[in-house]
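Entry 12.
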Amino acid sequence: MGYALRQPNPEDATMDNQSVLALIGPDCTAEQLGPLMERAREVSAHLAMMLVGASPPFPAASYGSPHYGVIAVSDVWQEQYAEGGEALKQKGEEIEALLETHGASGDVSTVYCEPPAMDDAVGRRAKICDLAYVGPDLRAAPAVFDHALRGVLFASPIGAVINGMAPNGSFLPRNVFLAWNTSLPSARAVHAALPTLLAAEQVTVACFDPVMTELRDGENPGSDLAKWLSHHGCTVTVQQYPSGGKEIGACIQDRAQETGADLIVMGAYGHARMREAVFGGTTRSMIQQTGLPVLMAH
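Predicted 3D structure (tokens):
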């Protein structure tokens, strides 16, 4: 099923003057960041580069210090903390020089704390950006990666893109696969991705195991969304897929590859985070895969 009011023109939907938050770690390289900066320069986007580093855990013994007493912190911890902070500072200076080399608009900030405290810090910066990219180098520290991503998803109103900083990537992909299930996170993901959808040559609205009732997915699942996107000027195709008992995350990946999608758009954590952490789920499987770029929102 297809809907099209007009052929979209990429020039109609650009990232001009948008602020893109790039969450990166201290081990990111110029080879990883250079293509991102070039893409930002080409579409006149501003890069908010945020260096995210985990500080050494605060010594447990210090928590037992008496009230009004002196907190005793080991010299070793203080040295480790200072070394980590200095490394981030030097990396920030390198990134500022790299931005200037590529002629890209941008700024550099740092978050240096224990991972559980990163959510709010990342969220504060994300609140005044249009979209966030989570760097692949953060995967080397799973706790940092998870909390940086959660900061965008749960402490800000914008979407987060994972696996989207490949050298051959694009801010405006041509073929987008939109996994739709009428949930609020899915709707927020669509709104977060709207500039991307407008610039795409093809958008596939995919519904998996839809419940065809008025109170669930509607009599023709995906058609209402397709009409709305078509009104904006997108070229949209609706597909309804049975999972056949297969995990939905795996189904999304398979179907997206079949359509040749450059980007997957989906809602994140439609179920409780604790449930997903214990039993797994679509969001968790999509976060763990590294082969396909995914734009998600909660």
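Annotation: The longest helix spans residues 75-102. Confidence is low (pLDDT under 50) at residues 4-13.
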